[in-house]
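Batch manifest, entry 17 of 40.
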Amino acid sequence: MNFVSQNKSKHIEPVDEESVTQAHKAAYGDGDSSGLSAHALGAAAALQALKKFTSGGQSAGSGSQTQIISLAMAEASKLFDQSGGAGSGNKQDAVNGAAMTVMKLLVQSKFSGIIGGGNSGGLGGLMKLAQQFA
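Output type: structure tokens
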């Protein structure tokens, strides 16, 4: 979480949805993440965490941001171990990549509602994006 906090300027950088989709497909669809970098593993894990979060019926309350980031970090760690490592980078890089990918998505406009605000419908937007990558 310190990595995310210390790199706030990167939160507004756009997420390469094509790369995230391809990494997710390789890691979770094809089951072959051997050629992925640690950052790509983290991005794939972040998307998987978003899918788990939305399919689990989680509420979009004040703790949602922390819950999603924590879930993504845990998923990245698990994926890194299951895949026997990454093509480049280490486990911490994968965990950081997952956290940063989720944070970028949360900060970007399509996720502005997920981090709070009455009738913002953030969970609906999150589910829409997760389904987009299915």
